[in-house]
Amino acid sequence: MFCKLLRAKIHQATITQTDESYVGSITIDEDLLRATGIHPNEVVLIADSNNGARFETYVIKGEAGSGIIGVNGAAAKLVNQGDKVIIFAHYFLQPNQIEDHEANVILVNEENKITKQLRYPSSIELTIGV
Asked: Contact, 16 vs 68, CB < 8 A?
């Protein structure tokens, strides 16, 4: 049995461009990829905080320091330039691996520069006789 857990998150990134004619994907500044451990070609879940749209696509590495968050292809119809999005990367763990897991989360400003890096532990205290 496996459990799907959050591995990394980029919180409240700003969409800097959309390109419906591109083959597909989301372009993310390489600095943000490096900080979260998200890889090019990795499938990510995107949630648009402005309109509630959610979709999956794969990552393309953008120029480091550019602040680019560009949604391409058909998914570009689901977001607008200036929208705030949350980018989630997941993985599957065995139940015995969960207690040692921590998700890597970054918060970014309007220019998609890192303002804070957080760790979300997956461990919980078990209580007996509740």
From this structure: yes
Q: Report which DSSP code applies to 77.
A: G
Q: Is 58 a catalytic residue?
A: yes
The torsion defined by the Cα of 23, 81, 6 and 54, in degrees rounded to 10, comes to -70
Residue-level pLDDT at 125: 76
> pTM of the full predicted structure?
0.93
Cα(102)–Cα(123) distance, integer angstroms: 8
Which member of 49, 58, 120, 123 is catalytic?
58
pLDDT in tens, 73-130: 999 999 999 999 999 999 999 999 999 999 999 999 999 999 999 999 998 876 776 5
Q: Which residues contact 95 (CB under 8 A, 6 or more apart)?
A: 1, 3
Of 21, 22, 25, 120, the catalytic one is 25
Q: Which domains does the chain have, with CATH numbers?
A: 3-121 (2.40.40.20)
